[in-house]
Amino acid sequence: MADSTPTPGIHHVTCVAGDPQRNLEFWVETLGLRLVKRSINQDDPSTYHFFFADAEGTPGTSMTFFPWEDLPQGKVGSGQVARTAFRVPEGSLDYWEERFEEYGVDYDERVDRFGEQVLPFRDPDGLPVELVATEIGDDDPTVPWTEFVPESAAIRGFHSITLWLEDPEPTQELLETMGLERVGTEQAEGDTPGDERTRFAAAGPVGTYVDVLPTVQGGRNGHGTVHHVAFQTPTDADQDAMRKAVRSRGLNPTQQIDRHWFRSVYFREHAGVLFELATNGPGYDSDEPLDDLGGRLVLPGQFGDHREEIEANLPDVTIPRSERAEADD
């Protein structure tokens, strides 16, 4: 690989949703993630930006959404992040299947992949998501959020993403440039016979894997699709070195952009998937106390001067609270 620090793994994944209230209810109550930041799309302040993560917003745990209600339904296809998978503790998939039955979640039968059990499902916008049962060590950096889901089943950050690509080889070489190691190949379950899933592993314990699957199936952006995936470049120096490494592959990354809770560099990889390089700091608790994350609409930087106008253009939403949490207030 190029002379840069290998990425520890996925930082966050950002997706497109429809109705913001429905999005909140599913990801907070049904899946049990914490709303760690309620803000706006900094490129389109008329739209919310929700961040769902573990109890502390640990890098590698945040699934974020732009609820653009006016967009059409999307379709997952080539040139996209086709699947986003989360880690859950071993032995918890029975709990999740029962919970999905209770909440009416659209899910499929479990599959075995690289020696692990995977439970595929879809969120209310049709976004393909997976839970992967895996061992969570005592030294794991994630902190479970247990308002709605017990610690024994709580989501513990990302496991992997799956890229669907028409021509995988240039992207696979890019992943190796970013420090991910090719660790295995197996027949892709449920797909055309002969298709192979190739797995790449990053250096860290969370958001470790990127799977690459060849497909020519066409897709389109919209509700239920991934907007972009961000990889961790923990420090500014790491990010600058990775930016140079990416440029060495003939790609055109942006200059650093301050996103308030992290600093970002964006580029489209060879197949058109939007990649981001994100620093680990300052973090989601840089402008709110840890105990109050997600409790208010945060308007970073210059947007704070236009709060009244911005709030007037956003739909009202209610953050789900458990009966136990309400009793403690």
Features:
329 residues; alpha+beta; 2,3-Dihydroxybiphenyl 1,2-Dioxygenase, domain 1; 9-stranded mixed beta sheet
Provide an overview of this structure.
The protein has 329 residues and is of the alpha+beta class. The chain has one domain (10-328): 2,3-Dihydroxybiphenyl 1,2-Dioxygenase, domain 1 (Roll). Helix content is 17%, strand content 33%. It has helices spanning 20-30, 93-103, 168-177, 236-247, 307-312, 323-328, and strands spanning 10-17, 34-41, 44-53, 62-67, 80-89, 106-107, 111-113, 116-122, 128-134, 158-165, 181-187, 196-201, 209-214, 225-232, 257-258, 263-268, 274-278. The strands form 2 sheets. Strands 5, 6, 7, 8, 9, 10, 11, 12 and 13 form a 9-stranded mixed sheet that branches. The chain has an 8-stranded mixed sheet with strand order 2-3-4-1-14-17-16-15. Strand 2 (34-41) and strand 3 form a beta hairpin. The protein is globular and about 50 Å long. The N and C termini lie far apart (52 Å). InterPro entries: Extradiol_RC_dioxygenase, Glyas_Bleomycin-R_OHBP_Dase, Glyas_Fos-R_dOase_dom, VOC_core. Residues 9-134, 157-280 form the VOC domain. It comes from Halolamina pelagica. Residues 309-329 are annotated as: Disordered. This is Glyoxalase family protein.
